[in-house]
Each structure stands twice: as structure tokens, then as C-alpha cells.
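Translate sequence into C-alpha cells.
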Amino acid sequence: MTTLPAIAVFLSLTVAGQASAAEVWHWQECSDPTMIRATVEADRRGVAELVIPACRLDRAEFAVEQQQRTFDFPAAPAAVRLGAKDAANVTGSIWEAGAEASGLVLGVSFQTSDRILLNSLHVVSVSAGSSAEIAPGIVVRSSVERTRRDDGR
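Result follows.
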């Protein structure tokens, strides 16, 4: 696992992409997805975990979706780190913020009903795990759960 600032990794993914400029990884179901596990921790306690199907597609092949895929979760364990007064009202969200040749860019945010507490990016490499502290004590990790065609097919 590597820990790098999101902007530096994002720039390196953009410059060093292995696929054609039009072929990128996208959070979408397909016939043979690579499964990406993403976790959010606050003070080393699990706050959220999800598995994302990622498919390498030409940008023109993206499925037209009525609404962006978003994973919402209660985030009370992160409340103190985010300066929220009422932990019960803190929620988190993860969504696809970008599609790159080397992986996905996830948006990660925490909010209450009346304000955004944190809005950040996490770069997911499909070739290696990654970890980033997006705020003091709040860490986002990602790893490849299952790669394409490694299930015996």
C-alpha cells in the first residue's frame, strides 16, 4: 500500500495511463468487472466499506444513468474529527468523481443537513492498493478484491 497526496496521484494517473486516452475505468456493472474494496476509517475504526464493480470501457460505452451512483453511510464515528456537534446527523457519501486510464477517482464527503464538513478525492489504482488520510484521523483505503478473469474462467 502507498500513501500519497490525492492530487499527485491523480496527476500521475493522468500522465502515465496505460490504456488509450478514451479507454478508462468506470464504476459500472459489466460481464467481467474488477472488484474494488473501499473503506473509510475514523481513528482506526471502520466507518464504511463497499465493493465497487470497475470496468475498463471506452468513454463512449458508459451506460447512461439517470442518477450518479452514490454510496451513503452514517458517519457518527467521524463527527469529532470533523468538528460536528451532533454525531447522529453526520453522514458520508462516496461517488465516482472521475474515470482514468489507470483507475477510478472517488469523491468522499461528510456532511450534516445544513453544511458540508469535508469534500475530498481518493484515487483508486486497479493495479495496487492505496491509502490516503483525507483529514486528520480520517483515512480512505482501496484495494483490488478480484481482478478480471482471476476466478478460473
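Note: Residues 10 and 105 are 8 Å apart (CA to CA).
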